[in-house]
């Protein structure tokens, strides 16, 4: 009987020791899992800015593509109507008469600015300070040379600006930065479009790193002018022409 009691006690002690050992192993496993999760969280935090920057870069590239299309549509409209400017994006979306039909010059998707909260482009008048300053920035980026207009029909909008632009200094442009933002999205004759977003950009467009100062216009874009410095990885597009955007010099983007 005594022997049986000792057996039970021994079994209980052994079982208690095993449970303690199992609890210790489970505790160690939990600590290991928490450590892995912590490392994973740190890794996510490390790559989050890069991912966010990549998403922003793609949005900016898409905006540039759409803006370039709007600029080309403005050019076609002005040439067709012998110098008359469009008054709204709808004028461009309606297309141009071609016989009994109309020829599309702007895709509906390009009529939407992916960086503006409401998707509407800012319409830039030929007399806007923003337009004047953009011409000066292009001149500075193009080593002091202001590109010629794409045709004589555009001279009425370009020539009055030439003397003013040539008389401006770099400091004059910087001082006018905050004054140049005028938001008009409809019912105004426009020579270009810009974003309503005032955020800093990841990409530099003609050396400009602010969305609101990127103006997409048929002017200042003659042959041989590029927003990309020679030797840039993105300097030539599939058509053999130089793209009008460049990578941000502050970082290396593949």
Strand order of the largest sheet: 1-2
Please give the number of β-strands.
Answer: 6
- Globular, elongated, flat, extended or rod-shaped: what is the shape? elongated
Integer-rounded radius of gyration: 31 Å
**Largest sheet entry:** 2 strands, antiparallel
Helix content bin:
40-55%
| SSE arrangement, N to C | HHEEEHHHEEE
Number of domains: 2
Give the overall average pLDDT. Answer: 74
Taking pLDDT < 50 over at least 5 consecutive residues as the criterion, the unreliable ranges are 223-254
Give a short synopsis of this structure.
It contains five helices and six strands, in the order ααβββαααβββ. By secondary structure, the chain is mostly helical. The chain folds into two domains: 1-36; 59-213, no CATH class.
Structure, explained:
There is one protein chain. The chain is mainly α and about 250 residues long. It has two domains: about 1-35; about 60-215, no CATH class. Helix content is about 45%, strand content about 10%. It has five helices and six strands. The chain has helices at about 1-80, 90-95, 130-140, 155-165, 170-175, and strands spanning about 95-100, 100-105, 120-125, 190-195, 200-205, 210. A two-stranded antiparallel ribbon has the order 1-2. Strands 3-4 form a two-stranded antiparallel sheet. The chain has a two-stranded antiparallel ribbon with strand order 5-6. The radius of gyration is 31 Å and the shape is elongated. The N and C termini lie far apart (about 80 Å).
């Amino acid at each position: 009987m005594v022997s049986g009691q000792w057996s039970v006690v021994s079994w209980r002690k052994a079982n208690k020791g095993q449970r303690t050992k199992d609890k210790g192993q489970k505790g160690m496993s939990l600590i290991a899992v928490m450590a892995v999760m912590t490392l994973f969280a740190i890794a996510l935090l490390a790559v989050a800015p890069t991912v966010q920057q990549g998403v922003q870069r793609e949005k900016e590239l898409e905006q540039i593509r759409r803006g370039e299309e709007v600029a080309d549509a403005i050019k076609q409209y002005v040439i067709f109507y012998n110098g008359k400017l469009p008054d709204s994006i709808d004028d461009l979306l309606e297309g141009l008469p071609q016989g009994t039909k109309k020829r599309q010059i702007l895709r509906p998707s390009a009529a939407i600015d992916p960086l503006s909260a409401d998707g509407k482009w800012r319409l830039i008048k030929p007399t806007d300070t923003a337009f004047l300053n953009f011409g000066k920035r292009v001149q500075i980026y193009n080593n002091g040379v202001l590109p010629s207009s794409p045709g004589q029909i555009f001279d009425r909008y370009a020539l009055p600006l030439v003397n003013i632009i040539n008389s401006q200094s770099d400091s004059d442009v910087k001082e006018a930065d905050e004054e140049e933002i005028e938001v008009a999205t409809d019912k105004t004759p426009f020579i270009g479009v810009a974003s309503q977003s005032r955020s800093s950009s990841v990409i530099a467009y003609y050396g400009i790193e602010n969305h609101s100062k990127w103006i997409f216009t048929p002017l200042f874009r003659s042959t041989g002018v590029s927003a990309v410095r020679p030797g840039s990885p993105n300097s030539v597009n599939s058509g053999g022409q130089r793209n009008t955007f460049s990578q941000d010099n502050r970082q290396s983007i593949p």
